[in-house]
Amino acid sequence: MTTAQHLNTQFGINGELKFREDASGLIVAEISNGQASASLCLQGAHLMTWKPNSQAVPVIWLSRDAKLAAGKSIRGGVPVCWPWFGAHASESAFPGHGYARTVPWQVVESGTEPDGATHLTLRLVQSEKTRSQWPHAGTLDLTVTVGETLRMELATENTGATDFVIGEALHTYFRVGDIGGGRVKGLDGCDYWDKAGGSALRKQSGAISFSGETDRVYINTAAGCVIEDDKLGRRIHVAKSGSLSTVVWTPWTEKAAKMGDLGQPEGWREMVCVESGNAIENVVNVAAGTRHTLIVEYQVELL
Predict the structure, then answer these.
(1) Which of 127, 194, 201, 288 has a Cα-to-Cα distance from 18 of 20 to 30 A?
(2) Which EC numbers characterise this protein's activity in its record (predicted)?
C-alpha cells in the first residue's frame, strides 16, 4: 500500500506539495505556493479546496459537514463524474455519476510550473470492481494545476480496439456569499433540460438567478460562464474546452435538509454548482486509439 511518507519521498515538493494521511486513513495532498493553496484527496482525485492568496474566502466550497471515508464521495470540492453522468443508462445498482469519485487514484507526476503554480497528475486505479462496471480498455488521468488560476484536465484515453462512449463532468461546488444574491451569466439563449421542472427542455433567457431548487443541464454549448457574487464582491470566470454541457445546481431548503451533509442549517446558501462536462445528448464517443480531454479553468476578479 502506498503511504504518505512514500509519496512525499517520490512526489513531494519542499515547501509546496506534501502528502498526509487523514484520520480516515485516506491520503490528502496539500498544496501551498506563492499564488494559492489547495487540498486534494487521492480517493476520487477529489480536489477539496482552492483559495488564491488574493482572496479572503475560498473559491471552491467544501461543506463543513464533509466527511472523508473509504468508498464514499465527499460533499463539496470538485467530484469527478465518470464514465457516466447521472444514473447509469441500464444498471440501476451502479452508482450515480459513475465510480471515479469513490475509488483509489495513484499519483503519477508532480512539478512546478515556470510561473510558480504547482501541478499534480493522478490516474484512476482499475480493479475487478471497476472493470465489472466499465469493461473497456483505457486510462483516466486528472491533472490539477494550482495557482492564481485553477486548471483541471480530465483525459480519457481509449487503449482498446473498439470505440466507447462516456458521460463526464467536473462537478464543481463554488463558494458564494449567498445563493439568493448570486447569478450566472454567459448561457443566455442556450437550451437546457430542467430536471427540477419536470425534465422539460427550455431555453435560457438572460442571466440565471436563484429563488428555489435549480437543476439544469445546458446542452450543445461550448460557452464559458461567469458567477457574479454581490455579497463577496467578486466574479468567478469558468472557461472550458472539450465540453458541450454545463450543469447548474442548487438544492434549496427542502432538498438540502434531506441531504444532511451540506452544513446545516443553511450551508447550502453559500454554494452553487457550475459543472463543465458532457451529458445526455453530448456524451462523447472516444474512438479506439484516441484521447478525449475535458479542460476547465477558474479565475477570480473583484466586482
Answers:
(1) 127
(2) 5.1.3.15
